Amino acid sequence: MLEFTLPSDSFPFGRATSGDPSVRVQLERLVPLRESRIPLLWATGTELTQFERHLRDSEIVTHVEAVTRLGDSVLYYVEWDTDKETFLNGLSEHNGSILDAHSDSEWSFTVRFRSHADLTRFHQFYQAHDYPVAIDRVYDPEEASRTEYNFGLTSGQREALMMAVQEGYFSVPRKTKLDEIADQLGITKQAASERVRRGAETVLRKSLIGLVSDTLEPADEA
């Protein structure tokens, strides 16, 4: 299993989904790249007009459809020209299956490979093409399977969330503050806030989206 990050402006799909830096993008699920189809993706932000316009204008995107809306998040169905998406094509050709992918200023991926040899070939691929991949973690898939719930959290989000729960940040009344959590983690209050908020959003979305999907209303056409 491989966890890594990649700057949004360094590969075609990243550029296509970076029209508004305030918008968080999360892939809902993946289908084979050879079917010329981008997975369903969630875009979350207070104003998605710029993001959607940029997505529609991308040279690799052939179709965009707003499927449903949940609060300040919209689920989009997007198709693209796979011949122009070289990085994701390379990932697919080396038998990489994306389990989780999300973006703010950069894309974070969790990918499972069929074998260590496939992982090695992918490593050679992105180095040969000068993709600035930053490896966060490499581990055996069995390690992840031993965890009862694997929500695709980053290690920082998981650490911050666990501390928030243990210290009573979510208790009523609240027993600790974000600046106290930040002090214990050795990070800024803003960084602690982002890790707790985004981590909680990831857990809640993956836990609840299946329960509420049947009640969602279709999004208005842009």
Automatic annotation (TrEMBL):
One Pfam family matching this protein: HTH_10
Bacterioopsin transcriptional activator GAF and HTH associated domain location: 2-122
Keywords attached to this entry: Transcription, Transcription regulation
Top-rank taxon: Archaea
Residue ranges constituting the HTH bat-type domain according to the UniProt record: 153-203
Signal peptide boundaries: none
The keyword Ion transport is annotated on this UniProt entry: no
Listed name of the protein: Bacterio-opsin activator HTH domain-containing protein
Originating species: Halogeometricum pallidum JCM 14848
Lineage: Archaea, Methanobacteriati, Methanobacteriota, Stenosarchaea group, Halobacteria
